[in-house]
Amino acid sequence: MKVLVPVKRVIDSNVKARVKPDQSGVDLANVKMAMNPFCEIAVEEAVRLKEKGVVTEVVIVSIGPAQAAETIRTALAMGGDRGIHVQSDTDLQPLAIAKLLKAVADEEKPNFILMGKQAIDGDNNAVGQMLAALLGWPQATFASKVEISASSAKVTREVDGGLQTEEVALPAVITADLRLNEPRYASLPNIMKAKQKPIVAKPAADYGVDIAPRLTVLKVTEPPKRAGGIKVEDAAALVAKLKTEAGVI
Amino acid sequence: MSVLVIADHDGKHVRDTTHKTVAAAARLGDVDILVAGKGVGDAAAQAAKIDGVKTVLVAESDDLGHGLAEALEALIVPLAAKYDAIVVPSTSQGKNFAPRIAAKLDVAPITDVIEVIDASTFVRPIYAGNALETVKTSDAKKVITIRPTAFKPAGEGGSAKIEKIDAGGGAKGAKFISEEIVKSDRPELGAAKIVVSGGRAMGSAEEFHKIIEPIADLLGGAVGASRAAVDAGYAPNDYQVGQTGKVVAPDLYIAIGISGAIQHLAGMKDSKVIVAINKDPDAPIFQVADYGLVADYKTAVPELMAALKQAGK
Lengths: 249, 313
Ligand SMILES: Cc1cc2nc3c(=O)[nH]c(=O)nc-3n(C[C@H](O)[C@H](O)[C@H](O)COP(=O)(O)OP(=O)(O)OC[C@H]3O[C@@H](n4cnc5c(N)ncnc54)[C@H](O)[C@@H]3O)c2cc1C
Ligand SMILES: Nc1ncnc2c1ncn2[C@@H]1O[C@H](COP(=O)(O)O)[C@@H](O)[C@H]1O
Hints:
The structure holds 2 protein chains of 2 kinds. Chain A has one domain: Rossmann fold (3-Layer(aba) Sandwich), CATH 3.40.50.620. Helix content of chain A is 28%, strand content 30%. Chain A contains 6 helices and 13 strands. The longest helix of chain A has 15 residues, at 37-51. Chain A is globular. In chain B, the strands form 3 sheets. A 7-stranded parallel sheet of chain B has the order 5-9-4-1-2-3-10, with helices on both faces. In chain B, helix 6 runs parallel beside helix 9 (297-310). The chains are: A alpha/beta, B alpha/beta. Strand 12 of chain A pairs antiparallel with strand 8 of chain B. Bound molecules: flavin-adenine dinucleotide and adenosine monophosphate (AMP).
């Protein structure tokens, strides 16, 4: 079986995003970047499925500027087999990303697609569902457990209220939640090996899909700051404050 | 403009998230509500009472009862022809199907909206709430998910007409197997006025039960948790508050043994009053806390219980 894993390069999850003073966006100059954590989890799951013999080929795809190739390389060091870099210097919106990924899926014909549930920059949580819709495939989002069999996937999903298990016919799109697994660190030998693995690059425009933005960002602002609070001496003082000052109990 | 809101309900009751979504949708135009599920007669009757709702559409099938995205797509995409906007509460269920519908309609979804500026301009948080973006869409039809905590609920004095409709084509390729829903008498996390959350400091599920739940119950609040507490198995997954868990904005949020990572703050920093109990005076949670208590929770929480009881709780 072949699995396609779309990965995104985003701000490192330990870095606090800062808004640019001219409100045109978030300042990413000299900011540490990394693979989106949910994409890492998807790569890990794909590699584990390969190690178990369920999957024979793990194809990594990323859409973005030149540096997206580094993110693909990281996924290859974790155990991916080859990469596809869809080149785009402009920041594309989820609908455009989903259309490009559909074009890649049409060429690659994977048995299923494993991807992150959410990119931690735009926090859209949309591409997987949109890709499934465009392909006309079923979807299993927010996965915390995945079992792949010959023609279907049994997926346990994290939902409001608890867990839901469903079965989707393959091909399908599965999106990873945080508790699906703990991604490995690539070992030095594997990082070296990954340098030899092939990455094919192709400009986004060559896929012939409509990637024009539908949303115009008018401005990006800082959220209102909370006024600083106080430290209280002990539990009794806290209750007194909550009762008389805050009036919440 | 005509707007179709997709109701969030538990089968019997329409959730408060629906009222909040209607309030947001009413800023766009006339509101109809779709109640999709199985055995949802009572929920539909409640939806008909929400202020400003013109018509309640009711669709029932087993697949809809399990909330399968494929079934909702088959139902809603044809209905969308009649509406200018589809507006959905940003719950795990809404997040699951709304983008699917948007893609089918060739529309860019606008997710997690916290402010409606006008019929095509919206504000939404990005980067774990560290930035807010104002976006204007050029799509004629809109698909929007609403972050319920950002809106006040619509009232209940309406009497919309209720109309049964066909359930649509079913969930092609997807089948419900089972679910494990955590049963609780406590208020729902997203709607509770008071939330008490525990973090990694609890160290075990027993300690989490013993420490966090009694104060939540004393205050009539809901229980939340940090990701670390959920990952370690101290609390179930749907307790997780944060960027990738639930977003809450209660009157009072009490964080116990939680450091205050940006991803956790993303889910609770819009609470009215924040209390933090942490033994590390430099824990980042204190930067957003109105009242900080630097203490070991093992002594502070029993003292807090005693003080609350003395104060008449
Ligand atoms: C992609 C991504 C998404 C994430 N999404 C979320 C999310 O939605 N929600 C979320 O919460 N996290 C999320 N996280 C994780 C987040 O970054 C933190 O790791 C997590 O919130 C830490 O949980 P914690 O505060 O319980 O644990 P810790 O950071 O370990 O903090 C424990 C705290 O307890 C205090 N403490 C210890 N013992 C005591 C004691 N006896 N008495 C009092 N205080 C004590 C310590 O001083 C410390 O501050 C996400 C991370 C990533 C990468
Ligand atoms: N530029 C991109 N290149 C490849 N995959 C992407 C890209 N953007 C988003 N994705 C995938 O879509 C998932 C969800 O992203 P989003 O819907 O933007 O929150 C991510 O975890 C990735 O798997």
